[in-house]
Amino acid sequence: MAELHCSNCGILFGMPDFYEKKRRQDHKSFYCPNGHSQYFPAESEAEKYKRLYEEANANSLSAREEVAALRRKTTRVEKQLKDHKKRSAAGVCPCCNRTVAQLAKHMQSKHKEYVALQGVPVQKQLTDGSKPN
To answer: What residue spans define the domains of the chain?
Structure first.
């Protein structure tokens, strides 16, 4: 038997344990012996754990979506880099898209800023070992 106090008149009254447990879970109204309506507003343990589970599930779902988006972006950037390297190896200038036989000399003479931004020494850029003019 559960002992409760009325929140309106303060009377002490009893309630069977199973009934108290049910009202704590469903938050429905019950009455004190003087007729004052009562209810248990606090969330039950089951409601608390359900809420925490749903929050954790929502967080993990958004994290999985973010990871998937980052993987798609990484794949796209890797493909662009691969295409860029392929075009450069074929002698296509990455700045003006012209096919150039001596790409290293062209890059040094026409796109010095680009070469400087890459941080590669001029000697490494030259394919035939000659120095730039």
So the answer is: 2-38, 44-90, 91-133
